[in-house]
Amino acid sequence: MKKEIIITTLFFFISFFYLSAQNRVTINADLGQDTISRHIYGHFSEHLGRCIYGGFFVGEDNTKIPNEKGVRKDVLEALRALKVPNLRWPGGCFADTYHWKDGIGPKSERPTIVNTWWGGVTEDNSFGTHEFLNMCEMLDAEPYLSANVGSGTVQEMAEWIQYVNHDGVSPMADLRRKNGREKPWAVKYWGVGNEAWGCGGNMTPEYYSDIYRQYVTFMADWTNSGGLYRIASGASSGDYNWTEVLMKNIKHNMLDGVALHHYSVIDWSNKGSATDFSEKQYFEIMDRAFEMEELIERHTTIMDQYDPEEKIDLIVDEWGGWYDVEPGTNPGFLYQQNTMRDAMIAGMTLNIFNNHCDRVKMANLAQTINVLQAVILTDEEKMLLTPTYHVMKMYNVHHDALMLPLTVKSDSYKYDDQELPAISASASTDKMGVTHISLVNIDATQSKKLELAIYGKNFSSVTGEILHSDKLQDHNTFSDPERIKPIGFSEFELMDNGISVTLPPFSVVVLACK
Ligand code: AHR
Question: Where are the alpha helices (DSSP H) in 373-418?
């Protein structure tokens, strides 16, 4: 064959490969600028239902469930493997009822507290500041403390900071030493109240801005390690006015992060079952999860107006799916199962966070154990890892990696007369030079053939992992805890300028390219 004919034929095939592809992800592997903070993969642990008691903590004297200083060993092992970067505590709504001094000192002398938000149960405060911060050390996770603004005082918060962070001689540092801890924990992340527009005090944004300024004025930095990171209680989903007022009214040198809470819920008065749902309900939840993209874009547009240099971060410190509680369980405990639908929420949402890592510097899935979209469920001595756990673990390759900008051209996933993009993606290159591409196909019935066009880098080998199951409703149970888990994935072909992949319906895939 003549040289011209070969070139023309090759050109034809390459053009065909790229232009005819319906689904196409174009990755600029040499144009990465922003790092995906590992803190995007944070978790949330509230005194709610069986998250703390029975989930994390079973007590030092428990002889039935193996534990280290009262913390379940199976949970420690699972969360270490997840590489949990930070853990938010003690709430949520609970935080604005919590008085930290009730949870220190000899356990027999600690007063009880009635959990008015969650089930009205009486707690013995046996899991307090020391137990939480020591547990974070065991997990190598940064603590993120949510301080009580709604029913606390400025002094109470200032003293908590002194108690956990002051290395010198002071009333609170001395009290900490008396309680058995010599060195401070150096807690960097502080939430100034939670959901101030609701359970945190039903405040207006104008009033909260003033309260925030007052509290922050007395947050002395005892850490000697680069200062405290102060997070303002942020908007609920699309309350853009909340973000605007905070950005306008709070001095920017007093603010490091503005929070945002967004739950994927169909209807607050009729949330539906976690495991028994129709495709219509699945679509609606995907729609709610996909809203995260618009929420981040709109909230950050407002932030850009007041803070064009992007000094203040957006912190999505509560997100996830929210359904009816499992039948027969306490409605105030928010215990729900976790299916492939939740894996889809997680995969899609984490792709959105990765792609917006210039502003989104931290996020916290609600919640770690036995509550809402949990990564772990426990039943006495039994424990299982949910599909959401597996997605978070597959994605931990993105921790502190360089985000690669990409564009996605995707078929629609249609239900009735509505549609959503079927495919979402994000990509990064880690410190070892390995590029990871995470791909999600939310379509409930159709597999998707997809071309990955990669510019600026050539790969000679690709490996993959997939999370998939037969039915969207599939989930792990205590009698079948490994029904859903990631397996090796090989439905791809490495081409000259990219990779051709076939994604099964409702699947999450992560490719490692070298
Ligand atoms: O995560 C459960 C609750 O949801 C939290 O306590 C609160 O902040 C939010 O409304």
Answer: 387-394
Mutate to test the pocket of ligand 1, among 50, 93, 194 (most ligand atoms within 8 A of CB): 93
Q: Is the pLDDT of residue 302 over 80?
A: yes
Q: Is the pTM here over 0.70, yes or no? A: yes
* Ligand 1 centroid to residue 316 C-alpha, Å: 12
What pLDDT, on a 0 to 100 scale, did the predictor assign at position 8? 47
User: Which pLDDT tens digit goes with each residue over 253-284?
Assistant: 999 999 999 999 999 999 999 999 999 999 99
| Residue whose CA is at the smallest distance from ligand 1 atom 5 | 92
What is the C-alpha to C-alpha distance for residues 245 and 257, in angstroms, rounded to an integer? 14
Co-location of 409 and 392 in the same domain:
no
Say how many Å lie between the CA of residue 50 and the centre of ligand 1: 14
The better pLDDT of the pair 17, 64 is held by 64
**Boundary-marking domain end, from 354, 374, 399:** 399
> How many Å apart are CA 295 and CA 263, to the nearest integer?
12
- Quote the domain boundaries for residue 503: 21-32+405-513
The CA distance from 478 to 378, in Å, is 8
Please tell me whether residues 111 and 183 are part of one structural domain.
yes
Residue minimizing CA distance to atom 9 of ligand 1: 92
Does residue 57 lie in a domain region? yes
Q: What is the CATH number of the domain that holds 88?
A: 3.20.20.80
C-beta of 93 in contact with ligand 1 (< 6 A): yes
**Beta partners for residue 365, in sequence order:** 43, 319
Same domain, 193 and 101: yes
- Domains in the chain, number: 2
- Cβ neighbourhood burial of 87 (10 Å; 0-12, 13-18, 19+): buried
User: 10 in a domain, yes or no?
Assistant: no
Task: For ligand 1, say whether the CB of 46 is within 6 Å of any of its atoms.
Answer: yes
Domain with residue 471: its CATH number is 2.60.40.1180
